[in-house]
Design a protein that fits this description.
This protein is an all-alpha fold and 84 residues long. It contains three helices and no strands.
Length: 84
């Protein structure tokens, strides 16, 4: 199917476009994983576990989300300062 036909189907909402996709080849950019080890003080682990439990997520998930938020915030501020 050509992109124009695909776009038309999507825009007109005539059918489920998922059937037109080969999801076995789908990739999410910048999502490759690399394992790292980080040592945290016990008090920090305790607080992370408590907050993760409150939110109903794993310790690893909360660490990833908080780091991503901080990195996005830092990148955004650097771009604003440089005028980008």
């Amino acid at each position: 199917m050509k992109a124009k036909s695909f776009d038309k189907k999507f825009d007109e909402n005539k059918s489920d476009i998922i059937d037109e996709l080969d999801l076995s080849k789908a990739k999410r950019p910048n999502q490759a994983q690399k394992r790292v080890n980080v040592d945290f003080p016990v008090w920090m682990i305790d607080l992370l576990d408590k907050e993760a439990g409150r939110l109903g997520v794993t310790r690893q998930s909360i660490i990833k989300v908080w780091l991503a938020e901080r990195l996005e915030h830092t990148t955004y501020n650097k771009q604003r300062q440089s005028g980008a």
